[in-house]
Amino acid sequence: MIHGFLALALGLLLFPQEGRGFQFDVFPGFDGHTREAHWYPVTFEIRNDGPPVLGFIELSASQFGREHARRVPIELPTGTLKRVTVPVFSASRHPAWQARFVTEQGKVLARQEITAKQIKQVSSDTVLMGALSRSASGAPSFPAMKRNQPETQPMVAKLQPPIFPDNPIALDGLRILYLNSERALDLSSSQTLALLAWLQTGGHLIVGVEQITDVNGNPWLRDLLPCQFSSARQIKAGAALQQWISGEDAEKEDAGLPSLRVGTSQKKTAGAAVKLEKPPVPDESFDAAEMLVAVGQVRDGTVTISADGLPLIMEARRGLGRITVLAFSPERAPFINWKNRAWFWAAMSGLPFHLFETSDFRQPGGWSADGLFGAMIETSQIRKLPLAWLVLLLVGYLLIIGPLDQYWLKRINRQMLTWVTFPLYVAGFSVLIYLIGFKLRAGDSEWNELHLVDVIPSGERTVNRGRTFATIYSPSNHRYPLEGSQTVAALRGEFLSSWGSSSEHNQSSVIQRGNNFVAEVFVPVWTSQLYVNDWLETSQPAPLEVAVAEGNSFRVTVRNKLKAPLAEARLYVRGKIYQLGSVPGGQAREFKVDDKEGVAVPAFVKKHSSQFFSVVQSRRQSFAMHETQLKWNLAEASMAACFLSEANEDEYYRKFVSPGSLDLTALSKPSEAVLLAWVEDHSPTASLRKFSPRRSNQNTLLRVFVPVSKQP
Fold it and tell me: How many angstroms separate the Cα of 318 from the Cα of each of 203, 315, 363?
């Protein structure tokens, strides 16, 4: 008993607020799930029933000497409950975070450890679906896989509206989100804006209609849907859903939308039904049961499935993403009792059924896309010592301190002088090594940045989704101030690869201010480090006006609204790249390209793919096998890097890992073209750096998405 009282007294002494009205809870990931090489949220819920507290939340990682910390200033009056979301990048398969609440005076009021056991990570190319369902049992589910690899198993994360992220960057790791219309009423305005921005930049939102009043009484959801509901009817819809899953209906594809229906074959013939290797189980009771279906009028998009003359499933494009509307509740009978319910959600997510039947081993992971862009903008001031010279230097050192020293001292009969000569040799070689390092690495402070910006039409204005890759070369041990001043911005270090050991490959301190940040990063002497700023700016004026018309050839009109000229412009449409040319600043040009002039994307990427793998691997080597300086065609290499999936050569080590929204093959649609425009010495947004380097360079690759129209 005495020991118990002592432990209690010690706890109150160290953490006086604990047990007296201070609650500190941490919710990592999407219900504990994350996706490799993508952002995920860490949500903090803090309740203070004690005296007012002014301090900050600190989330830090410390592995192998690498430290990275994110801080959020927060004020907690008496009787308050606050929730804060911090975006974190999934850079390691075994993350270890420490979350603390620290007062202004430096006193730790609460602490929680986040270990790898609390976070289940799936590979970057695996589906991670979020679910805001009405009930836990009504959430979507997938069939079980025969392959015993948890990281490649599609997952469903059950989310709760109170801790749903209000930062669209933090939603990056979700590929799909199921939203019950009843739960949509529980989302705050900031959460709604984050969801809409995520949808615009490539997300897939699936809305299940629980009741018509949930939609008509919710302005943002009512305006977002591609249909307007007015009533409800009981109909038998089971046979239509069963037929859609079985692939027995004729293929119906809209030019602007990918088909929802999938089967086992990855290669489909247009107009042909998809044959399943394992058909869904017949369910006569589901076919005979009546289902309550919302009835209304389709405004835009397409009807994917209908029954008894009524649309069951509708789909429409929203920016780069798409919205799918289920005119029924998938959480009520008879749907929730359907034997093929899990297969329905697999098909709705675009997953081929054979994925669940194969037991073949699939190696997750690969090389980092960050290393590729880092190599493109790496400083030329740093040169690596050739391995042959390193070996020669080491052999020379061993010869001098060993046989030569012994031979010389023995010849002059002064063997005792070795106590003097040996320290002199060490000092001499130390000076020599310093001079070699100074010669190879010393230089001026340098900042290089490359902006990769998706320009997404949104009415008369645009949504800009950007990634800023920036390298800092430091001639001394120094800290550099950075700031993300965009509407939404999040800073991270370089993602090494799937085999990287540290969560963040840098030493930095980031203060999160709402949805943007200020930061201070440390760069050691004579080194260069890469940082990435993921950002989003909404309702921006369009930098370019682009029109693409298709006839016997493609007619492309580009109006450059920038002062800077487009040094190079290419058109990507339907699997081919067409070279256009340059466009002066403030002017417009029209290009006409024939289909025969296009280069297939695999052939375009193949010109660079071998170099891509070599530079990424060489960035992780301390010494060079030979002296070579790669000569980049930076514009063309940056464009080729937008199709990294085409550079992958096998399932194991010759492939890249990158966020899904980086690869244009996953974003573009058949009825859509993408203009790739290279702008030299130009930044499309406020600079990340808040210091003045001796050298600097900046370039921008704009990726403008535009619909393809038919020539009259």
Answer: 9, 10, 34
State the first-to-last Cα distance of the chain, in angstroms, to the nearest integer. Answer: 90
Q: What SS3 state is found at 381?
A: coil
Q: Which residues pair with 466 in a beta bridge?
A: 453, 535
Q: Reduce the DSSP state of residue 662 to 3 states and report it.
A: helix
Q: What is the pTM of this model?
A: 0.88
pLDDT tens digits, one per residue of 384-406: 666 666 777 777 877 788 788 77
DSSP code string of 469-514: EEEEEESSSEEEEEEE-SSEEEEEEB--BTT---SSBSEEEEEEET
Handedness of CA 115, 116, 118, 121 (dihedral sign): positive
pLDDT tens, position by position, 348-373: 999 988 888 877 766 667 888 998 99
DSSP codes, 201-263: TT-EEEEE-S-HHHHHT-HHHHHHSSEEEEEEEEE--HHHHHHHHHT-SPP---TTS--S---
Whole-number Å distance between alpha carbons of 224 and 199: 11
Q: Report how far residue 203's alpha carbon sits from residue 324's, in angstroms, rounded to the nearest whole number.
A: 11
With a cut of 80, say whether residue 108 has pLDDT above it.
Answer: yes
Q: Would you report the helix, strand and coil content of the chain in percent, each value rounded to 5? A: 25, 40, 35
Q: Are 426 and 420 in contact (CB under 8 A)?
A: no
Alpha-carbon distance 387 to 389, whole Å? 5
At which residue do the structure tokens 């029933």 appear?
Answer: 49
| Cα radius of gyration rounded to whole Å, the chain | 29
Structure tokens at 314: 């509708």
Question: Please, where are the H alpha helices in 519-663?
Answer: 601-618, 634-640
Distance between CA atoms of residues 703 and 638, nearest Å: 11
